[in-house]
User: Fold Transcription elongation factor GreB from Marinobacter suaedae.
Amino acid sequence: MSNTSNAGGNRPRYITPEGERALREELQYLWKTKRPEVTQAVREAAALGDRSENAEYIYGKKQLREIDRRVRFLSKRLEEVTVVDRLPDDQEKVFFGAWVTIEEESGEEQEYRLVGADEFDLTRRYLSINSPMARALIGKRLDDEVSVRTPEGWKTVVISAIRYQSPDRLG
Assistant:
């Protein structure tokens, strides 16, 4: 699948099926629920008279601009992304969508999933594929030693596990 409308460089913008679903759900919510609610509130505030000193009207118009900006962004982004909905042929290597467990020099282990930039969320242990750590892990195998530059300096980790979730189990 080619991606010719990629304004942010020549790298495809990958996303997991659940990441694409989350973007579509947000777009649907903003367009079908939130925007009509705010539009109604602005309409009601406008009916109260002088708009120049009407805080509800001014705030509502600002909310509509923010919603419209986000709707435009999400619509464009959904056209640009490439959904990765199949497992890699070689599941012994780290690729997009993998859960990778790394062991730090201290012996502490951390598990991360390599996801698209739109899905990045460290609280869920989702690491952007564009991050230095993810870029260092791509293509590596179990027990490979990986060095990555961090704000604190160079860090060396060892890959202690690689796993993939089957797309039919996502949900």
Summary: DSSP finds three helices and seven strands in the chain. The first strand starts at residue 13 and ends at 15.
